[in-house]
Amino acid sequence: MKKVIIFATIALSCTFAFSQEKEATKEGWHKSGNIILLFNQSAFSDWVTGGENTIAGNLGVNYDFNYLKGAITWDNKIQASYGLTKSKNSEFEKKNDDRFEFNSLIGKKAKGDWYYSAFLNFKTQFTKGYVYAKDIAGKEIRTQYTNIMSPANLTFGPGMLWKKSDDLKFNFAPLTSKVIFVDKDFTLPNDAYFGVEEGESTKYELGFYASSYVKLGLMENVSMENILNLYSNYLEDPQNVDIDYTMNLVMKINKYLSANLTFQTIYDDNAFEGFQMREVFGLGVNYGF
Predict the structure, then answer these.
(1) Which site among 18, 65, 71, 187 is 20 to 30 Å from 180 CA-CA?
(2) Whether 161 contacts 173, CB under 8 Å
(3) What are the C-alpha distances in Å from 119 to residues 66, 74, 159, 284?
(4) Which residues, in sequence order, are bridge partners of residue 265?
(5) Residue 133: partners with Cβ closer than 8 Å, 6 or more residues away
(6) pLDDT at 190
(7) pTM for the whole thing?
């Protein structure tokens, strides 16, 4: 646990150390993003050291549309990704990525780089999720555990924003509402399903939320995003701070090809007693717009 927190801290600290001030952004809408397709395949025939035939594909979208007009700033970001892996020795194709997240942050200038702000964050997944096991005959079986909107999190609230540029900003929201949505058919006794009580489909929380976004160019054609979100629920175990840290590293080869690395770690004791981690790396087709 400590290693993950240290990693996130170092990543953000390095970003501050190397970030540079940019020219003032022009007023109006500013839109940018990329679509990436990663593909991986492996095949073996009479390979004496062993191997498993697999095929995998990932599709991701990262899109920003920001607005600036006078004292008003409005930043929006969509992150969506989905991936599947199929193995010859498995009964099922399995997800290796499934995510949809929308962030919106609006601010009105207070003084200097400070703004009065309000934010909204929504995240869920696209398709069903399963846990896998084997029956008494050794055959692989699966049990559905999640679905689109189960769970889904809607978080929103007023706060204060410090924004140096589109690539360097922090938001603090001390009165944040969070609503967890689930399919009540999945809820289990003792708040075991994402903190939602048995037979219920929603849970309301009130807490403190802080977020940071830092993006920089490490070198020519290499950029790195650091996104960190922290949340503490005042109404239940406020000492258990939820952590969501994502690092997106894009290494462009040319206009259409790039190597991409995504690392994400989440700590949310309502979902899992420990850190969840995912890492996706690949060479893929990259289209920027």
Answers:
(1) 65
(2) no
(3) 14, 10, 8, 33
(4) 245, 277
(5) 140, 141, 142, 143
(6) 67
(7) 0.84
Cα–Cα separations (whole angstroms), residue 144 to 78, 90, 133: 27, 17, 12
Region label for 10, one of left (φ > 0), alpha (ψ between -120 and 50) or beta (otherwise): alpha
Is the pLDDT score of 14 beyond 50? no
Residue pair 180/172 in contact (Cβ under 8 Å)? The answer is no
Which residue, among 211, 207, 205, 204, has the nearest Cα to 175 in the 3D structure? 207
**Token reading at 9:** 């801290």
Q: Name which of 191, 198, 207 is nearest 270 in CA terms.
A: 191
What the block records as the tokens of 245 is 């840290």
Q: Indicate the pairing of strand 202-219 with strand 28-42.
A: unpaired
pLDDT digits (tens, 9 = 90+) for 23-76: 456 889 998 888 888 887 777 766 666 667 888 888 988 899 999 999 999 999
46 φ/ψ angles, rounded to the nearest 5 degrees: 55, 40
Q: 151 with 181: CB under 8 angstroms?
A: yes
Tens digit of pLDDT for each residue in 248-275?
Answer: 998 888 878 888 888 999 999 888 888 9
Query: Which domains occur in the chain, in start order?
Result: 2-288 (2.40.230)
The string of pLDDT tens digits covering residues 139-155 is: 889 999 999 999 999 99
Q: Residue 143 is inside which H or E element, if any?
A: strand 140-146
Which of 130, 176, 179, 182 has its CA nearest to residue 151? 182
- What is the rounded distance in angstroms from the CA atom of residue 269 to the CA atom of residue 275? 9
The residue assigned the tokens 């503490």 is 232
Can you read off the two tokens belonging to residue 222?
Answer: 């290499």
Provide CB contacts within 8 A for 137, sequence distance 6+.
none
